[in-house]
Structures are given as C-alpha cells and as structure tokens.
Write a structure and sequence with these properties.
The chain is an all-alpha fold and 107 residues long. The protein has a domain at 47-77. It is 50% helix and 0% strand. It has helices at residues 2-22, 30-34, 47-74. The termini are far apart.
Length: 107
C-alpha cells in the first residue's frame, strides 16, 4: 500500500512541476513559446482555465498523498524502539565472582 502511494506521490510531483512550468507568467505571451496563438493549443477556452484546473487537481492529489505517507510513516514500528523486545537491565550490584582479580601493589 505504501509503495503504491509513494509511486502516485512521485508521479503527482512530476506532473505538477510540468503543469506549473507550462503556465505563462503574468503578462507573458504563450504564443511566443509555441510559434502561434495560445488559444488553439489547449482548446477554445484557452490555456488559463485548463492548466489552472489541472494544477489544482494535481496539487490536491499531491497534498493527499503527502498526508497519507506522513500518517503511515508515523505509525510504522521502528526496530530501534520495538516494544516486543524485553528491555536490557544491568545488575545493580556486581557479583564478586565477576570481578577481576586484584594485583598486589609493589612498594
């Protein structure tokens, strides 16, 4: 499931980049980029409405996949903090048998 959402997320990201780069800036003329009038490239309604709707749709898909991936990453178990393993405890007072032998000090 996570792999499918990740693939959809990357595709939405790439499509969003392409759609934003296709849009004209304020006052820019799309006809110069395509060698003709921009009204016939994207239909009679023009580039503004089609690309604007596509940008909004892909942006919503991008945000939804971002939220889903964030939710799944937050609820996935981590091997570092796995609750099924028993905690490691240290002995409070070491046993005398486990102590290294002390050597006599020469004076």
């Amino acid at each position: 499931m996570t792999t499918l959402v990740t693939i959809l997320h990357v595709l939405a990201c790439l499509i969003l980049i392409m759609v934003v780069l296709l849009q004209a800036g304020k006052g820019a003329n799309m006809g110069a980029a395509f060698g003709g009038s921009s009204q016939t490239v994207f239909g009679s309604s023009g580039a503004g409405t089609f690309l604007g709707k596509m940008t909004a749709t892909v942006a919503i898909i991008f945000m939804l996949t971002s939220l889903i991936l964030t939710y799944t990453a937050g609820h996935r178990g981590s091997a570092l903090f796995d609750k099924s393993k028993a905690p490691v405890t240290k002995q409070a007072t070491p046993n005398a048998a486990n102590q290294p032998a002390s050597y006599p000090v020469k004076k």
